[in-house]
Amino acid sequence: MKKQTFHLQKAHSYWKLFLKPDDIAIDATCGNGHDSLVLKNILKAGILYGFDIQKSAIENTEKLLKENLSSEDFQNIFLHESSHEDFSKYIKNKVNLVTYNLGYLPGFSKSVTTKVDSTLKSINSALSILNNKGAISIISYPGHEEGEKEEIALLQFLKTLDRKAFSVCYHKWLNKEKAPSFFWIEKLLF
What we know:
single chain, alpha/beta, seven-stranded mixed β-sheet, 37% helix
């Protein structure tokens, strides 16, 4: 496995500190399945939902998970070849964590990327299904045109969240302008 970059290390460390083995999590952008595998290794008996609009992403994720998990662990994984825009179509429970690794599917066409509108719709959907003390993890990539638009929109949107209801943290390299960023949104207990 190749060395993880800072943004992935940061996200994974937050997940490990935050999730309990019987929690429910969503990988909103499965990609090649690496984040799904990290999540399921943390969750143990918990439930993992995975979403991606690309069939190859779902196939890659399923293959990686089946190669690295027992058949028992795989029973609590539900993968959907679908947009992440509206989780309520598939998930009726409250969830503990929703993760996003925005951008394009590594190793495939860079013309298929996450988009500002669907990402913001998805984050609104995620906010509505979070458990008390639930969280959202987002990695954005401003190094390509759509990724830059997404990051600008995320910064604008996340600043509007009620500070009494949500705590929002933003990790960004100050001396690497186009480097990936990490956002952490945590729902506060009412």
